[in-house]
Amino acid sequence: MSVDGAFDRRKDQSPAITAVNGNINGNGVTLSSAPTFCLSLNPNKEHKPDNYDDLALEYDPMLFTCLERYLPPSLLSSSRDSKLHFMRDILLKYSPEGERIRAQKHREYRQKIISNYQPLHKELYSMHATNFFVPSFLKAIHDNTEESFRSIMSEPAPGIFTFDILQPQFCDLLLKEVENIEKWVCDTKCKIMRPNTMNNYGAVLDDFGMETMLHKLMEDFVRPISKVFFPEVVFYPEVGGSSLISHHGFVVQYGIHKDIDLGFHVDDAEVTLNVCLGQEFSGGELFFRGVRCEKHVNTETQAEESLDYSHVPGRAILHRGRHRHGARATTQGRRVNLILWCRSAVFRELKKYQTDFSSWCGECQREKKVRQQLSISAVKEELLKKEGESTS
């Protein structure tokens, strides 16, 4: 993993940005054709994919489950082994050997933890929406319209949405599960991967068996909202709609003897869901300073882009991963947050071929406006010149 950019704690200027990378492989692969068949452009939404968790594979089993819907119609009814062979050939063709080796080692590491760690609250490891979420959030998701989403949300700054999401009892159970994970790590002296390159405390919940539950959280709850509010980075009708296909789920902890604050950075995600679990704390506010592409990540912040946000237990904040942000010092108590980075391999592949991101990057938008203004001024000047010549 690498950290790009410098660390700067200045509050009122635009400091250098750190690109925060998670521990799992989320970049995806480019999907193309195989010798005999091609993947379908659109997924078969009615098809129920097989489960590949019981197999020792070079790639995350969830990847095969997600990819299966894109198989040619003639293969969908084939045996699991036939479908696996087809998908594996495609992935091997486009995935470097080093990447496969790293992914395999991480799966072995994860399986070792899951085989030895005994969950404290097993009900957290499967999605039980009515027990997890507040009724207003569930109703908005059920209605699945922009109006229903906006009815439960605040948008304190463009592209930043806050809303109540988790029931207090769920937050309490997850906090106790995190404490149990910490105790197990201490008792067994197990060395675990931390959430990313900037947080030294917390745990990757996917590594402890919550991958399936968190994938459902992304697929059934974050995707519908993102499709409405972040279509430029996650919605591609030509590939079947929302392209969010992988995630990185973790908890971070701040307070005495933990991380105190978090430097100015962007996330390794297309969309980030950040939910405060508690507990009692002071400080820890998030500060946002505008959305930027890689080219403009260290440009100045405009006044309208600045926002400070105070955490409330059970309340979520949803934003683009490229929205520059950081966390101020937690001065008292202990703050724990659940974070879900949602990733799109399609967006990452397509943006390699783009130079202008004015649909979402604040600085690209400003540069486009300047070019338009200069063009209009040039046309006006030329018309005035011709008018002057015709009257002389």
Automatic annotation (TrEMBL):
Domain Fe2OG dioxygenase, chain residue ranges per copy: 245-344
Cofactor section: L-ascorbate
Pfam families assigned to the protein according to its UniProt record, in alphabetical order: OGFOD2-like
InterPro entries: Oxoglu/Fe-dep_dioxygenase_dom (IPR005123), Pro_4_hyd_alph (IPR006620)
Signal peptide coordinates: none
Keyword rRNA processing: no
UniProt entry keywords in alphabetical sequence: Dioxygenase, Iron, Metal-binding, Oxidoreductase, Vitamin C
Superkingdom of origin organism: Eukaryota
Keyword flag rRNA-binding: no
A GO molecular function held by the record: iron ion binding
Annotated PANTHER family: 2-OXOGLUTARATE AND IRON-DEPENDENT OXYGENASE DOMAIN-CONTAINING PROTEIN 2
Stated name of the protein: Fe2OG dioxygenase domain-containing protein
Highest classification ranks of the organism: Eukaryota, Viridiplantae, Streptophyta, Embryophyta, Tracheophyta
